[in-house]
Records
---
Amino acid sequence: MTTMTNTQPISAPTLRHVLHDPVWVKWLLTAIAVGFIILFLCLPLAIVIFEACAKGWDAYWAALSQPDAQAALRLTLLTALATVPLNTVFGLCAAWAITRFEFPGKSLLTTLIDLPFSVSPVISGLIFVLMFGAQGWFGAWLSAHDIKIIFAVPGIMLATLFITFPFVARELIPLMQEMGSEEEEAALSLGASGWQTFIQITLPNIKWALLYGVLLCNARAMGEFGAVSVVSGHIRGLTNTLPLHVEVSYNEYDFVGAFASASILAGLAIVTLILKSVLEWKQGKH
Amino acid sequence: MSILLSNISKNFGKFSALNHIDLEIPEGELVALLGPSGCGKTTLLRIIAGLEQADEGRVLLSGVDKTEQHVSSRGIGFVFQHYALFRHMTVFDNVAFGLRVKPKKDRPSEPEIAKKVHALLELVQLDWLHDRFPDQLSGGQRQRIALARALAVEPSVLLLDEPFGALDASVRKDLRQWLRSLHHELNVTSIFVTHDQEEAMEVASQVVVLNHGRIEQQGAPSDIYDHPANAFVSRFIGQTNIFTLEQHDAQWLQTSGLQIAEDQHGKVAHVRPHDIDIQKAVDGSTAQAVLKDWQHLGALIRIELVKDSPDDSGATVFAEMPNEQFKQLRLNKGDKVSLRIRNAHWFH
């Protein structure tokens, strides 16, 4: 009898006590998180915009319409345009191979896809210098055939390609693993060709994840600094991408120029963030 | 279309999934591939479909060697265990898919496709769902749509992988009957995979029992039940009591009315529960067992008996009889009973 009467009133509050932290813990954690975001994300962004416009709109536009800034912007767009489609195709192929086939060395390939994430970008750049630079493995052959890779646009593209290749594959592999291949097998058994199956069955199922991967890949391709910095040679108007242009301008005390270019990259980041949320929402709906 | 498999073998690494399978299925049959999980039945079905390649052996459909042909040109319909409906398409588009991907010269016009799809949806009694998406359907509905989709391309062979495996018990019962009558109507050669012997017996006209990548027995359900080819089939198809002559006193079995010949070649007797009659023992000398408990199985009663012999550790024997008959016996727990074994299968 006593145990019955005792346990009933005690158990309910005890349970609530365990599940709910005190109010001050909730407020403290929220304050830390919000404070961190303001200090390290919002404040720098505000400073970029503030500094870019410090000498007025005219100076801002003048800084952006400099030939060097324009060239940097063009090169950045060109690099993204060249690398993102290539890495999209590569990501699809890799994800397909890993999720649909059994082959020796599969887990090694899966690990290698992540390599660019685990290697410092500067090292990645250096690899290309060691391979294609004047003193590198292929250096003599390349100079004999008058092909310039390092300190030229091809080097920048190669470095960017290397840095951004995991993005698409990493988005697709878990999704395609989870989906399995039954729908594709069903399409094949109904007489569809491999291409029809890919276009009509696989692609619609992975499109949001694919776009998400492409978006991240693009953001990184435009924003990459370390690897590109090593291979570019910082030739103004020729091999400077936007992130490199920011650094060069800043080092030359051209603060408006540096921050104006930085504001474009920041704007790109914000657009990416918004699109990313939209895609995540779309993906969640499907 | 008839199906002929000759000498099919398949290994996954060191594991031998199928071992020199020879199988002939006449036209128009509804065949169950029955076996425990891992016996190779799904692999065999996928090899017939062309979704998997055999390491050796040939697959002939209607006498034509299709071993090297791709799944898309074999003219088979495949129904997957988890339906594999295209989740981004409506029910209508799912069923129309096989018609729309045909090469231009064979492709029906859109109105013809619409007519055919609606006819198929009516056949599976789900036309009212044509504009829904797969995730808005119940399991049984999805399974029927998957079947309609497979039938749209007029396959000469219909292959179903555990078609009722993922469904509720009540839905499963309905669908079994429905599949049987649908097969009767269409008469397309069909093979389905199952691990449920009751399902195989109820639906199929032919049952193929597989174990460890080999065919143990093939035949009509009643054949397999009444004349199991070996101990595995006997155990797998329905419940059975197993007596080994070493363990059990031959005397005990003989008292129960079982003839044991002098040159008895088998040493193990399999006795179906319904082949055991029981009666209240008139005196102690004729008693062979003690009634321990019983369970109601609907129309039947399953009776749990404990063997009553001096050397025995108290092995349990199961008997089954109709409810009415059991009531008339007026038995209680702990009563001594005498047994009469009507039939047994002997195995080594």
Note: Confidence is low (pLDDT under 50) at residues 1-10 of chain A.
---
Amino acid sequence: MSKPVEEIRIGVYVCHCGTNIAGMVDVKNVADFASRLPGVTVSREYKYMCSDPGQELIRQDIKEHRLNRIVVASCSPLLHEETFRAATAKGGLNPFFFHLVNIREHDSWVHENRQDATAKANALVHAAVERVRSHKALTKKQVPVNPAVLVVGGGIAGIHAALTLANAGKKVYLVEREPTIGGHMAKFDKTFPTLDCAACILTPKMSSVKSHKNITLWSYSEVSRIEGYVGNFEVTVRRQPRYVREDLCVGCMECIDACVFKEAKFPNEFDEGLGKRKPIYVPFPQATPKVAVIDPDRCLNVKTGKCKKSCVASCDRGAIDFTQKPEDRQIKVGAVVVATGFKAFDAKRSPQYGYGVYPNVYTSLEVERLVNASGPTSGEVVLRDGRHPKTVGIIHCVGSREEHTNRWCSRVCCMYSLKLAHLVKEHSGAEVFNFYIDMRTPGKSFEEFYQKLLKEGVHFVRGKVAEVNDWVLDPSEQGKLVIRVEDTLLGTVRRIPVDMVVLGVGLEPHADAQEVRRLFNISCGTEGFFLERHPKLAPVNTFTDGIFLAGCCQGPKDIPDTVAQAGAAAAEALALIDSGHVELEPNTAYIVEEECSGCKSCVPLCPYKAISYVEDKKKAVINEALCKGCGTCVGACPSSSIKQNLFEDEQVFSEIRGVLADV
Amino acid sequence: MAGAMLNLIMENQTSTNGTASGFEPRIVAFFCNWCTYTAADLAGVSRLKYAANVRVVRVMCSGRVDPQFILDAFAKGADGVLIGGCHPGDCHYIEGNYKLLRRVRLLHRMLRDMGIEDDRFRLEWISAAEGEKVKTVINDMVEKVRKLGPLQLPQRFRDGDKELEGEQLKAEAAHV
């Protein structure tokens, strides 16, 4: 019994996109060309195909001209494929009888010769017209979504995202690498431009995380594996041993007093090494969870096994447990928010500023700790040699906007440098110089803050600092650090002797950003920050569905922007899990059993183990639920018995035929 | 009639003889959805300018590229074939690009034996962030293929067929 051959009736729609396409491609020519192709019933050009009237055009034509295939030549399928599929469906056709041709991103925007661009558009439209003939009706597969969410990183971004989700009643796992959450924000003294105290606004949120019934907080832990797909991720979290039981420790810190090291002699990471701690410590007073942690590289007992273990004796709750081992926890979540933050630029990479050479050269983060009342000096600005600075030079753009280090603007340095200028002046009464290339203050009340600093008598020198050294050319420079700079407003080279230099270091991706990116199967931009799906319209989405971005791991940003983005990421995750199910693109592979020779070539090719070999039938079979639609097995099958929906051999061959046909 | 013919010839000339050398290469590209296709979108959004000779066919993964696609493109008159995939280790489908790489190595050898120069078939890893690389790779490839001149495989096939036919006729004549 043969099926009656359906007459192919194609509608072709060429979009002007205002002048975006029409400016470089002769859209009328393309529509005329398409109208002459076999099978094309209707061919039109329209100003904005994605607009309501544009989509309505498709719907009407399907009814009026009995169209059964639709081709739209407009922008990238990554933008509007879904739009036009929906329009096709509204006309009563299966949405997969549609194909989108990219004549904007791949044509009009990248070519300069109208004739060539038009010829290319014709070729691409020809390919699509050839292709849609062999399209088939498909349906999207629906799979249920696990309503739990994993948040990776416990800085302000992760904290905010986790709280938003938990407040919406969702189960949240918050995983943080360090022994405490809080991230960089916890180290700051005041925040610009309002000068409100960072700890005062952050620590209540940290406590809420700890006490929230919907949040499971795993600090000192890292995600080591993630498998599955949108809505159904299986995650392995590795919990490092802190040698102190979280369920028993109350954070009384008796153990710290009891430690055999009487003096705190190891640099405290939280104080950027300016303060000291013992092998057993609580990173800072408001650390969350407030549980002591033992540094395995410093603790005598962990390192050598020979120690009096006075900490164990001092803990009446018996919380110290040297038998702890790394522990793997398995969780299932439907969505992931990646909020892994940034790393401050290593100032030693710009040796001209003398960081690590001259003790009185500091990074901005170190100064954050110096001016902080809970910092190593209780907020007193004291130099490493014990002196109080009378003059301070703050150098902007260290590791930002530089050919040799990082080319991007780190966005926050101008503002935090202004803030530090204000705080240092306030705390020490010193004379403060700011050296800047451009003053970038684009934010609410930012420019006003700059104006305020100008009035406070802080000096501003416009110019990129060439060098910091201690060579004395003049008696006034004795015992000082000399900043050599071209003052571009005065048009002269200056030597400015100061007691203290502060380097406004930029923000850069974590050293292991590449590994993290591979772990979550997301992309990085050229500078190494995680790449959003679309810079404007999908700023917190990634190319992997169900994985969202928040905070500085996506690019430098200040606290308000970070919180806003974390909220957005949480909302996106909510939208996903609240819908209860996800629709998967039906581009899975399948095997035509009669044609399979049972050679097993495909079986080891599948990274998802979706293909198995059925011994009694001597055929391979594909488990559709596991297939993710890459098509690698299809490309390798020697008998062409594996097909991929949406990318059938015939469809690709007809596209090749189309693009190579004379136009 | 003659006028129409002339027009047709003129049209043909403008469409295929865009440059002084009289040859504009036709290159078919297979770009993976996640990295290279997106990079080409980025090149567009960034308004980078490159040669208009490449026609992109989108596939979900470079691993989907069947050697037959490449041979078919050459057989249908392509002067070059370009494949773009994610960098090794970055494949959206874990390792599809490695699977492709194996095929490409083999295919290069085969194409060489068929008299198709190496520069006509190229594999490039281009990440979603490398819009600039899309531009440089395409421009470079177009230049190289332009230097090599037209491949004209369909024409060669026809010539070969004709030659074979001639030989057969000769043989038949000798037989008679």
Note: Chain A touches chain B through 54 residues (CB under 8 Å).
---
Amino acid sequence: MEIAFYLSGLIAVLATLGVITNTNPVHALLYLIVSLISVALVFFALGAPFAGALEVIVYAGAIMVLFVFVVMMLNLGDQGAAQEKAWLRPRIWLGPSLLAAVLLVTLIATLWSGDAGRMISGEVLTAKAVGSLLFGPWLMVVELGAMLLLAALVTASHVGRVASPDKPEVNAESGARKEAS
Amino acid sequence: MNGIPMEHGLVLAAILFTLGFAGLICRRNMVFVLMSLEVMLNAAALAFIVGGTAWGQPEGQAMFLLVITLAAAEASVGLALLIQLHHRFKSLDVDAANRMRG
């Protein structure tokens, strides 16, 4: 269990580095899928199999497939990769990376100065406990999550349409003109 | 060695979060910005799971479920915006959309 945790954590960090340094969107997406699956393995190693299965099914299975479909639909060619390479000059990424490194050092120093000192023994928390929590005392939160998903559905179908709102009238007009002529 | 110290899990979450943050503020392509956001949300979910398993309570996994719901909503809206950006400006540069016109 410890070996699985540390090994998959290392793979997750390396794959995430691949995501943020890659210039090809499809390669970066594949690195991201590797990262998500190794985080799912971390969940399994920690003793949260329900969360690990959900990570594989929902994150790596549904959300990433959505990303892959959109990237395929936009048909980003070699020109995009060349532009990415032009944007990724050291002068551009050095400052932000330095700031992020300072943030990381601060986070780790804060973690080590605290005295949590707890060991995760890998005791398995099954889906039964999670379900009886979610549909017992946390029922309102589940309802709120459902409302969030509904709002996201409406927003995505409104924003994602290709024609602008005044386009259909123009089309109807031209269609009428075509019929008149 | 029996068990993993809680700090190691939290340090892993912090590293992943910082990598996602660095990607978010370095990149200009919107596809990579959205992917970095996914990495950051995933790191937050990992911190929830670590906390939940360290105390042996199922609340961590319940919060993970909510984080995954949020990530799905964010990804769908973000990808719709990405399609609009590509359609209107023929570019994925987020700086192309810095004017509020229509």
Note: The beta strands of chain A are 119-120.
---
Amino acid sequence: MEKRTVFSGYAIPLALLAPQLLITVIFFYLPAGQAIWQSFQLEDAFGTVSQFVGFENYKLLFERPEYFKAIGATAVFSVLVGTLSLALSLFLAVQANKALKGASFYKTLLIWPYAVAPAIAGVLWLFLFQPSMGMVARLLQQWGIPWDPLLNGNHAMILVVLAATWKQISYNFLFFLAGLQSIPHSLIEASAIDGATPLRRFWTIIFPLLSPTTFYLIVVNVVYVFFDTFGIIDAVTHGGPAGATTTLVFKVYNDGRSGGDLGSSAAQSVILMVIVIALTAIQFRYIERKVNY
Amino acid sequence: MADVTLKDIRKVYPGGFEAVKGIGFAIPDGGFCVLVGPSGCGKSTLLRMIAGLERISSGECRINGRLVNDVEPADRDIAMVFQNYALYPHMSVYDNMAYGLRNRKTPEDEIRRRVADAAKILAIEPLLERRPRALSGGQRQRVAMGRAIVRKPQVFLFDEPLSNLDAKLRVHMRVEIKKLHKSLGVTSIYVTHDQVEAMTLADMIVVMNAGRIEQIGTPLEVYARPESTFVATFIGSPAMNLLKGSVADAGTVAVGGTRISCETGNAATGTEVLVGIRPDEVALKPGAPLTVDVTFAEELGPSRLYHGTLGGQDMVIQVVPHAADPAATRLGIDIPARAVHLFDAASGRRL
Amino acid sequence: MVEKETAFSKYMPHVVLLLGVLIIFLPVWLAFVASTWDPATISNGKLPLTPGPYFIENYKRILFSGTSSSTREPVWSMLGNSFIMAIGVAVGKIIISILSAFALVYYKFPLRRTVFWFIFITLMLPVEVRIFPTYKIVADLGMLDTYHGLIIPLIASATGTLLFRQFFMTVPDELLEASKIDAAGPFRFFKDTLVPLSMTTIAALFVIQFIYGWNQYLWPLLITTKDSMQTIVIGIRKMIVTQDALTEWQLAMATAVLALLPPVAVVIGMQKLFVKGLVETEK
């Protein structure tokens, strides 16, 4: 896509682009480059001497059980949050779509958690599940479940999954509802004439037509779980207990900050970068429409 | 007011595509020139080059004698009416019309006077405070013309200004444009693909095809003496019949098994020709040797079209409804010699 | 469609949806309730479901004096920091991205495509993956504990540029042509036509970026060391102490309510713009 008519000149467009390019170079490319550079360096404890060590930092990373534990925690966390939030929001969106005129009313009541900061969402749920005085925690304990996310890794994982899902439902709901509303009514009618039951109609007509939305949301949800949930984990569990909720992003932060092992932290950053680039590449099919270059 | 002179104008796009392939003609001061042709023939590109919206690859464009090839659109002293009107959606009708004057630092009371005058001419005075969104298609069209008028330019450029209107409104606005041109007398260049618009508005028609000029002339000249089969079939509705034939001898052409008498000029016997006959210039003549085998008839109200064949080739004739039986299967016809146009079969040029 | 409409099929969606709405609301409601009771009621684990009499006391305390341990900063100053950051990020992003999109769409210059991709690729570099090097650069530039340090590194990203570019592409070419004939140069065209036409897009982007800026966590966590510079989202994190006996939950919950109120109000009050912004920036 191109404009038929444009202005001419070099100085003006350059000046208009300058702020964006300057910030992009200083705060995006420079740090990303440094992360890559550092991941191949070994620094001594004072950060004064560094030497090139090739892939040593990466090798060391994969020799440590903690890193595999973080990969496992991230995988469990992603799958749980992704599945739960997509399934629940699709279910709610289908109901809202049935409610016809009520749809926009329910939309208003369901989309606001998007605006709640992840850390705040975490704190709200922590309050409910806090072992000594949390309302839900007490209920669970009355039922004989020794609930304690501060000591039990699985409990901690459940807690952050709940908070992350709660926050993400609104986003998925919005896109699923829009997707459902864009399915032409004539298709539903045609399948009704073809004698499909409502449930069959959903699985054979609506769900396949919704698949681009679903696919898009899967990618977005994975990115969300990987990065945006940092606030939830940091505020609720600090990655604990015993690293049970330490995801890859949290580990980058934690290792870089407390451990001071910059080389290892940088190597982890680079691995994350590769993951994001892969995800974006998958998403590219959809962004392409907008890029069009 | 001014004359516009084009000399060997070309437009070559970066990809190498040549949209306009060397065009030259002159429009006299106060003239109304219509560029007509099918879509993609380069007529809009040519207009946009005159406007300064497209760069001229080579050639000369002069407005009132001044070479304007490298002059900004704003400094060419032209005004343009776009197909989609291009009204600024966030400005009132008044501001739309005043914008160009304000940018040229015209005093505000002068602007007010000119907008009021234009609004009066176009009967849009009650609309001045409205936004374009609140106007009908015809009203938007008037505002677009008002924006051109207030500038008092030397040349008006129209880029298919009526094609977004419904058929009835189009006829009405066509008349309005004609009136406006008569009263203001500003040199106008008008692009359209609609041959009826071209015929009714122009005092000079430029028929274009594939980046070249097919013919230039008054509407009557172009209609009565088409220089090529392209012009012959493009101008006039229903389109001229073209029958394959050859010159039999001086004064007759053979079409299939039949003979038609006409002016053959100095075309040699045996020359392959295309015989052009306008459907409405065919007269019915019961019992005549020349016959059309009718396949079906179409009623248009004031006239009837018979679709059929003559000498095995498709032929349409247009007659008044009461002249023949609507269910007739064979009609005797007479074709006056002056109504037959001969074109070279290979080049399509008039003989 | 003529389909059997039983009471079940008619009311079931509403029942399900209301249940969903209720569950979504529950944590926020309980946080609000907790913020209106005294510590004793909360810590004995018997929190009622209705607000208590300590509303004014708790909010006054937290807004103007802060908690008694961890961070003692009053919340009104955190709210102020959050507002400055959110508005700074939103306005900054809008300005730099509308300018760059204008250059990319309405000018032809060498390397234009390269520049476009250069900006576009930043979509793939979220702050989390380059956090320490970025921190180091900000520290070297002396921008720790400053508002511009909080804001500037966050305002360059491809989303805004792409959104404006996408919108500019839908602006009819004829408007620029009419402007050119009306003797308007690039700046006039930008100011008189393009910006007024972009108002909805600008507003939608503002809503999304305000929320984005307000909810930032990792970035302010790293680059603010002084309590007086912390945003409310960071403030609340410091109020939650893992050794929970020390956490003043009624105050933490009051802070949580204050922290989520502004962005939630923006989403609900400007729902149309929010939805537009969300759908168009992300898709």
Note: The mean pLDDT of chain A is 85.
